[in-house]
Amino acid sequence: MSDHIAYCPIIIMPGDTLTILLVVGIALAVFVLIIGVAIVLVASPPAPKEKDVFGFASLHSVPDSDLPSLCRYPARDGEQLAFRFYASSANPILIFVHGSSYHGRSYHALASAVSQAGAAKVILPNLRGHYQSGRHRGDVEYIGQLEDDIADLIAELRKQGHGGPVVLGGHSSGGGFVTRFAGGTHAHLVSRFLLSSPVIPTSRTLRDGSGGGWAQLHARRLIGLIILNALGIRGLNALPVIDFNKPIRYRDGTETLSYSYRLSTSYHPRNRYISDLRKLAGNAMIVIGEHD
User: Fold this and answer.
1) What is the pLDDT of residues 136-169, one digit of tens each?
2) How far is CA 77 from the centre of its chain?
3) Do residues 283 and 193 touch, judged by C-beta distance below 8 A?
4) How do residues 62-86 score in pLDDT, each as one tens digit?
5) Where in the sequence is the domain holding 176, given as residue range(s)?
6) Bridge-partner residues for 216, per DSSP?
7) 3-state secondary structure of 169
């Protein structure tokens, strides 16, 4: 006995066709409107400001002769990234990530004190997109690349024979990056986390600005890019979304004064940052100033 498949014709009346076309048209119009609004937001940067927020006039630069040589390690994409190594008799390794705009040189005094005290060997990386690291100042190739770079740095240290436990630390935006790393796929490479005044971007950050005038967000552009990325549109992620307010008279040419969307996103916890923070539980020390 052969099987018979009965075909039931679907009859669409003219009124039904009109309804379907209307619904499709409205959905398409809403989609186009969302993209249009996002692009308008993306195209509207703020007016620049200059203000000596941190009192740069009181800071003194460290002479090059006092610094360890700038070393290089290969990232997985073949790019040679920069870091400084502070030797110590201690077995633990502290990789300490710099804050926004500058690079590892800012933490020379900290690294020297920790290594000379015999607490840990210290590595000060210059993150990709900063001085002497990466192809493009202020940008990375994809969101999450900074985490891959630190994983590659740890692999290089192991290859060189440094077998001690790794502590990943960071200050300000560097502390925010440590939070992101703890919630990511490479967290198992690190034994402990050390965060100093970590930055965690929130809706209040978008509304009020950041760092008392230090960081100026392109808030509307950032919101537009978040919308576009949620829709799978990533072609504009190289656009800058944040500028740093270091007065011209205090610049030395090695600072990075603007971050792209993909670098800024890679530098901080994920939008649902609570999940990243939870991964730090019982495995981190967080140091925050009294008036932070």
Assistant:
1) 999 999 999 999 999 999 999 999 999 999 999 9
2) 18
3) yes
4) 777 789 999 999 999 999 999 999 9
5) 56-287
6) 243
7) strand
